[in-house]
């Protein structure tokens, strides 16, 4: 109505894939949500650059579980959204070859695949050359190392303010779950839970996996298993 001030229970700042997912889940919970973005439209930040690759090799159990859970959301995208967007967004299952490199050796994430139940095959370089024609199986080293790439999905020191940050590198794939886990975190903290003292264990709806949200806490220790690269 002209002259009427919009009101909301929740303001989400940032209309990328993560903020949008959080807004969707909060709205589903019955909150009145407003999403603000300084850009001209939604998805014009990192989201617009994403290769949209959905992979599962992360350096923590929570990271692997979140990506595995999220891929079921991408597989059933219309079901997840509750709306068929046709060809606008389609998940194409292609398989993924991960190279066994020092920064992210397979020994660091294959046990997590076994724990979570992510299927895989192990190939030697001859098989790799045969199965992926044209690939150069030579060695190129070292990559540039950066800090901890694990995002922060958490409350802040300021009551009522929450963050989903540190996402720019590799979290597109996790968007379907991030909205859900942030909504649970927000609801539980608003209902008095001390997430800093007793981290929430989020029960993933599709896989039934329990994801310890302490892994994404702003107060967590640096993830020493982190590869120091965008692989996480
Ligand atoms: C080249 C590249 C390739 C990638 N490939 C993959 C991939 O294959 N798979 C994968 O899972 N991930 C990938 N990623 C990472 C993925 O794109 C990000 O994890 C994801 O898009 C992050 O989403 P977001 O919503 O957190 O951030 P963004 O999409 O950056 O959204 C943040 C929004 O906040 C807005 N904003 C910021 N500050 C303010 C403010 N003060 N006020 C109002 N609005 C504000 C911005 O305008 C922006 O729209 C890739 C990233 C890049 C750069």
Report on the structure:
The protein is of the alpha+beta class and 232 residues long. It has a domain at 10-86 and 148-216: 3-Layer(bba) Sandwich (FAD/NAD(P)-binding domain). Helices cover 30% and strands 9% of the residues. Helix 1 (17-28) crosses helix 7 (175-190), helix 3 crosses helix 5 and helix 3 packs across helix 7 (175-190). The longest helix has 16 residues, at 175-190. The chain starts with 9 loop residues before the first strand and ends in a 20-residue tail after the last strand. Flavin-adenine dinucleotide binds next to helix 1 and helix 2.
CATH superfamily of one domain: FAD/NAD(P)-binding domain
Oligomeric composition of the shown chains? single chain
Strands, count = 6
Gyration radius (Cα, Å) is 19 Å
Mean pLDDT score:
92
Bound molecules: flavin-adenine dinucleotide
Shape: globular
Q: Can you tell me the residue ranges where pLDDT is under 50 for at least 5 consecutive residues?
A: none
CATH topology group of one domain = FAD/NAD(P)-binding domain
Please report the number of helical segments. Answer: 7
Question: Which range does the strand content fall in?
Answer: 5-15%
* CATH architecture verdict of one domain: 3-Layer(bba) Sandwich
Order of strands, main sheet, comes to: 1-2
Supply the helix-strand structural class. Answer: alpha+beta
The largest sheet is:
2 strands, parallel
